[in-house]
Prior knowledge:
The protein is mainly α. Helices cover 81% and strands 3% of the residues. It is built from eleven helices and four strands. The strands form two sheets. It has a two-stranded antiparallel ribbon. Helix 3 (66-91) crosses helix 7 (201-213), helix 4 packs antiparallel against helix 10 (265-283) and helix 5 (126-148) packs antiparallel against helix 9 (230-255). It is globular, with a radius of gyration of 18 Å.
Amino acid sequence: MLIPVLLVVASLVVLYFGADFLVKGSSSLAVRLGISPLVVGLTVVAFGTSAPELLVSVQSALEGNSGIAVGNVMGSNIFNVCAILGISAMIYPLRVNPRLIRLDAPVMLVATLLFVGIFHNGSFGRWAGILFFSGICVYMIYCVYKAKRGEVVEGDEEIKPTKNWMLDVVLVIAGLALLVWGSGLLVDNAVIIAKALGWSEAVIGLTIVAAGTSMPELATSVVAALKKRTDIAIGNVIGSNIFNLLAVLGLTATIAPVETNQINWTDMLVMLGTSLLLLPFMRTGFKIGRGEGVVLFVIYIAYTLYLIV
């Protein structure tokens, strides 16, 4: 039992560095090609920080562990909103860009509602996957279109390229290799722990795997909050949630349709409820204050205790 636990911890470290290398290398390459930091943030960085969720969910589905595949996406979204935003807001109140309320948060909410509506019977088929993956393609094309027309997200920071393009390529290849290796290590040992503890695959997916694959988002948002770059902290979370549902779940179901009876209505309502709660929190003075951060974090602690107990 000790060895699988240590291997899970090791896999989380591997996933973190894999995502970090992929984001750094691909962002630097994109800037060298003349792509704006805004477009890089909406595409490359969003994909990079969600890459652990993508690889873990796809591999879980291919191995028949649908509970982990779906639980990973749902748990990551709950973790992102409640734990990451909660902790970030407690560090420093998060300023909300109006664009997030106009476009990105509604897209996240619609995707969540669609998921709950489709997955209520415990299955998410290939056609649903294609629909969701088409959704992320449309969203990305729209974001790039708006960026090319001169839309700038307030607070968008300049991305500095590395010393040379060869280093960028090495970082991208190393990042992808680490993500593939780390995701396999995490899934295999998470299943061993789940069976040893008598937990379902879904509970492991909703807790350990979800928190582990969200480490890149946690690191990004907490560092941004510490640097008072709060627009990055909240934008990172909402963008990641959109990617998790539309891209991760969409591509996973397209490759290997998922079906599980281990996800119940409580899990789906917590994910939907926290997404709904985020909207009024964002609209009150266009910021998420420390008090609201505490509320979000307490919700996550309560939900985790409910899963375990």
